[in-house]
Structure formats: structure tokens, C-alpha cells
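Re: the 193-residue chain
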Amino acid sequence: MQDTNILIVGVGGQGTLLASVLLGNLAMEHGCDVKLAEVHGMAQRGGSVVTHVRISEKPVHSPLIEEGGADIIVAFELLEGIRWISYLKEGGTLYINNQKINPMPVIIGAAEYPDDIPGYLQEHVEHLHLLDADALALEAGSIKAVNTVLMGALSNALPFDMEMWLNQIEKNVKPKFIDLNKKAFLLGREENA
């Protein structure tokens, strides 16, 4: 596998950390060196959560992705996607959930949610995958499965066998939620095939 830098961004409570664990464990199982760095603010209050995932067949020395160095960004929410877009390298790929979560400044009226983020991204991102991951998660059985929907979409871009992904879901998700998350993963994968 080539060196791959993936930034996973979202809001506290969306499951970004589980997504990064699935991805990191999968890459290690595939024989790669992996470094993860989690950066989260007020995650319990809906604050920004960012995970840097660096994967290589050679040793990875730094866990952090530099600005302009991400091959892929997986964004769980529109504003978080646009907030971190400067980290996407030219020709990189953005998987983004078409969801709006108002941050505190918008809730209290001190700021406005930006207009037409999808339109901006369509003009500025060469490889854009805009998904209604919320609808797919609900189809699978729970809005909380957005993370595995997005991992399913991402799985099409990485050289890991689908069974390896499903195995990681079995290893890292509570038993009563495994089937739901597998369904969500497969819906995301099919949506983005």
C-alpha cells in the first residue's frame, strides 16, 4: 500500500474515533505501520473532533498530517469538511456527509452557518463524494451508524478486502450493534461504488 494520509473530521458524538480505530486496526492487520493522532476540543458539547490517520508500508515517524498533506478527508458534517479543507492535497478525495450541525456561535445568533457548502466544494475539490450518510444510517437502523456508512464509502478507495472491514466491525462494535453496523457499512460502500 502507498503512503496514505487520512483526516477524519466531525463533531463530538458522531463516532469519528470509532471510525479511526476501525481504519487503524485494519491497516495494521494488513501489515502497515499506522500512526493515529486525535485532536478534540469540547467533544462532549458538539465541538470539533479531528483524527489524523497515517498509513504506510514503511515506518511512520510523525502522527500529524501537515496542511495540504491529506490524501483523503472523511467529513461527518458539512462545516467540519469546509473547516479542514486546507489539509486536503491537490487532487485529493473528500468524502462528506451532507449534514448540518449548528455550532454554538450559530445557535446563539453570533454567526451564520455558511451558505452552499456543497456548491463551493464541487467547484474546489477534484474528487468529491457527497453522501446522505444520515439517511443511509437510518435505513440501516440507527443514525449513530453514520460512521460505518462513511467507512463503507471510504472502503472503495483503499486496498483492504471487504471481509477485513467487516471483521474489524465485529471486533470493535458491541455485539448487539454488529449487524446494524455491517448493514450501514455495506450501504455506504454500495452508495459510493
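The two ends are 20 Å apart (CA to CA).
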